[in-house]
Sequence to fold (261 residues):
Amino acid sequence: MIILFWNPFSPYSRKVKMALDHKGLVYSCVMEGLFGEGGASAELKLKSPRGEVPILQDGDRVIWDSRVICEYLEEAYPANPMLPAEPGQRARSRQLEALCDSTLDAAIYAVFAGKVICKDAPLASAMAAQGADEVRALAAQFERELGSQRFLCGDRLCLADIALYAQLVGVVPLGVAVDAFPTLSAWMRRIRQTPIGEQDAVAVEEAFARARASTKQLRHQWRGERIEFAFRHGLEAFLDGEVQRGRAYFPPSPPALPNGQ
Ligand SMILES: N[C@@H](CCC(=O)N[C@@H](CS)C(=O)NCC(=O)O)C(=O)O
Fold:
């Protein structure tokens, strides 16, 4: 029995969900509350050392981190592969996935923070504008990466396509247009027309509609490249202000060792 602990606001969760669907696996989902609900549930904290989604439970195995989960799925369920056969192309898929999970995620998160979660904060519009600029720069890079190929590693959808799509679908409701990139736009439409692409886009639209209708004060998690983004653009005061107001938080510290070891 496969269970996915996820949240539709998390592109990493949606990447894993798309991977499960691509492989045609049967699974059930447990929705974890992020942002408004104040972070990880007690059950999630037990399963994830960083209190993050996604978590995949496959029988007795509990696996965290979307890249590790996708590699696990590829090895445990080799049908409908997501990685190309040729080693260089496999490395390319992993490399582009890593770029989506790090630099692109941070740029989109900056727009999300600046436009949705804390639009009232000082420097929010600068955060959103810098994020949008970086999203467009990365879109130009992916336009070049696609070149004349149907997908990022050739004729077949690979994990890098899933990772990129799961991120870029989120920029549409944020009002960042990537229409100026015709190859990338055609690639987006191609994936959106597949059942997994359509389901993913709907999950994002519903999540944004729920967030807009909610009166709860949303909170936002900062880590890794997201913090790097704030400092790189001289926006550390934004982050500091949000920490002071109790809206920005970080992944939890590991539990202390017994006897002060
Ligand atoms: N490297 C992790 C990143 C996962 C991650 O950052 N998840 C975020 C959502 S996008 C999360 O669960 N945050 C906890 C929270 O917001 O409380 C992965 O690839 O799975």
